[in-house]
Amino acid sequence: MPDKELFGGKQRTSEEEFFYKRDRELAERLRSEAEAGVALRQFGEITGIADEALLRDLQRLGFSQQTAMLLDLAPLVLVAWSDGSITPQERNQIFQVARLRGVEEGAAAYAQLAGWLAVRPQEELFQAASRAIRAALEALPAEERESRRRALISHCTRVAAVSGGFLRLGSRISAAEQSTIRQIAEQLGCDDDCARETVQGVEEGEQP
Questions:
Q1: Is the Cβ–Cβ distance between 198 and 149 less than 8 Å?
Q2: Helix (H, G, I), strand (E, B) or coil at 65
Q3: Which CATH fold would you assign to the domain 65-203?
């Protein structure tokens, strides 16, 4: 066989391999993008959020379909960290609320929540969670939106109050915790009266 034909055959083989590899990589990328798109839509359906940029931010920060229920717990964790550390009572209170949200021991959400309570998450996570909660609330009817907003502020306040003061004398909520609760209330669109009434109710011993 002439050398020209031999080398021509090898060249064709190399070109075929190149295009085959390129097509396979393209198909794999398209498949991955399609799967990511499906996961994003499902995540949006679970959270009630339509903003894809926000959903991607949440995914980047570790939220997923399996841990979406932790969004509403992020403000509680922020309040618990307000004084620089988390007490056993605060941890128990947060896990009590988590169980009501379907967070079961051994699940991915449980492990992630435990991690938040062991090491304070970055501020970006709390900010993204707050934006997500507000976006989900704004999609609800007015009456339901207000009810859920007050319930969330109430849970935050109970986390702050659970440790209490010495012999329950004076305020049960520290100045740092009150400031954080007011900040969360403002971010969620809750007016000052709403936040003040909720905090006052817990301070006066309102039952959960």
A1: no
A2: coil
A3: TerB-like (1.10.3680)
Q: Each residue of 100-136: pLDDT tens digit?
A: 999 999 999 999 999 999 999 999 999 999 999 999 9
Asked if 174 and 82 touch (Cβ cutoff 8 Å), the reply is: yes
3-state secondary structure of 84: coil
- The pTM assigned to this predicted structure is 0.75
Could you tell me which of 108, 129, 121 has the C-alpha nearest to residue 49?
129
pLDDT surpasses 50 at 89: yes
Distances (CA, A) of 49 to 106, 133, 140, 189, 200: 27, 9, 11, 17, 32
CB 132 within 8 A of CB 58: yes
- Asked if the model's pLDDT at residue 179 lies above 80, the reply is yes
Q: What distance in Å separates the CA atoms of residue 158 and residue 151, rounded to the nearest whole number? A: 11
Sorted by sequence, the CB contacts under 8 Å of residue 53 that are 6+ apart come out as: none
Cα separation, 72 vs 133, in Å, equals 7
Q: Please report which helix (H) or strand (E) contains residue 166, including its range.
A: none
What is the amino acid identity at position 195?
A
pLDDT at res. 72: 94
